């Protein structure tokens, strides 16, 4: 335990000076921190990699770093399950799982987060038959507000699992996570440019036929970049990208050139549309086959702010066309592409995909650009499609509005009342989205 230091998240959208900061490397140390906070009338919030753009990890009282709780704790090979320390970063998982012949069923395109942070905020990848990362959680262990240890899984307290898998950090401190894995597999990636209307007119077919489909639309253009990934057995032949090709596409074009586009757009906004049109002609036209994590994950070094909304799958084309009209009508110059992904319905209470096949639309702005006007206007569009905001990304809804689109919102709050009646694990964000 030490005096707090200034903290900012990766996207530079949130900052705080905690009263105290602590780092735990054992479960007993987590218990000590929780009891200390309770005795001193302080709240306690865990912080992972800081990759949430919302205020979900902001810690005014005690900021608890659990990165010391990491690594492989247990393996159940017959059932393809592994138990990890909650502070294990996603980018470490391939090295831990590959020797076991295992992999995560699905991943997002960023792997800097901790496993507890990623599952607790609803991190997801794409694929109409696959759920978000939290759907792969089969058990977890919490330190609750009274300092006790609570195991939740299919053999103990199973009724709490749909709440705790994606718990926003509101139910306790997660110290262990057990994941359901799958046999290691490859992905054949086909990335192609396509037309805006061509893809939207055929969106549901593209999204549901492919194992994993997503696309990026560059504002001010008629072009999108599609990514279609097909699952292959782990012993299928690999055809990875060459070192030069990978460096050019993933480092130079995806990050370096994007940063340049954003910088030029700030200096001379009129250049944004022609630069975006150029990007649609030079970016994203390749085919390769590699290990699943090598395809799912992409490096992200250009900082940005992000809002993402989940809407019914069939509503995606109409909603994206509404966003295009919005940008054109307002005369904004948007340098960052709009990202579209999909996910299967699941039963986690606060999942953005709860109870319905889901499409995701994510909008971004460069870290130095003003994002509020753009994001609030997009949010109004998304609310017209029964949109649910990603918990780890920027949105402006409160508990009343969220209860209208999350059918089990009240049930989750009831579990919170049971496990943390005195709100030891709250912060201003959780007070807003769950109620005080």
From TrEMBL:
<dbReference type="GO" id="GO:0003885">
    <property type="term" value="F:D-arabinono-1,4-lactone oxidase activity"/>
</dbReference>
<dbReference type="InterPro" id="IPR016166">
    <property type="entry name" value="FAD-bd_PCMH"/>
</dbReference>
<dbReference type="InterPro" id="IPR016171">
    <property type="entry name" value="Vanillyl_alc_oxidase_C-sub2"/>
</dbReference>
<dbReference type="GO" id="GO:0080049">
    <property type="term" value="F:L-gulono-1,4-lactone dehydrogenase activity"/>
</dbReference>
<dbReference type="InterPro" id="IPR010031">
    <property type="entry name" value="FAD_lactone_oxidase-like"/>
</dbReference>
<keyword id="KW-0560">Oxidoreductase</keyword>
<dbReference type="GO" id="GO:0016020">
    <property type="term" value="C:membrane"/>
</dbReference>
<dbReference type="InterPro" id="IPR007173">
    <property type="entry name" value="ALO_C"/>
</dbReference>
<dbReference type="InterPro" id="IPR036318">
    <property type="entry name" value="FAD-bd_PCMH-like_sf"/>
</dbReference>
<dbReference type="GO" id="GO:0071949">
    <property type="term" value="F:FAD binding"/>
</dbReference>
<dbReference type="InterPro" id="IPR016167">
    <property type="entry name" value="FAD-bd_PCMH_sub1"/>
</dbReference>
<dbReference type="InterPro" id="IPR006094">
    <property type="entry name" value="Oxid_FAD_bind_N"/>
</dbReference>
<dbReference type="InterPro" id="IPR016169">
    <property type="entry name" value="FAD-bd_PCMH_sub2"/>
</dbReference>
<protein>
    <submittedName>
        <fullName>FAD-binding protein</fullName>
    </submittedName>
</protein>
<feature type="domain" description="FAD-binding PCMH-type">
    <location>
        <begin position="12"/>
        <end position="184"/>
    </location>
</feature>
<dbReference type="Pfam" id="PF01565">
    <property type="entry name" value="FAD_binding_4"/>
</dbReference>
<dbReference type="Pfam" id="PF04030">
    <property type="entry name" value="ALO"/>
</dbReference>
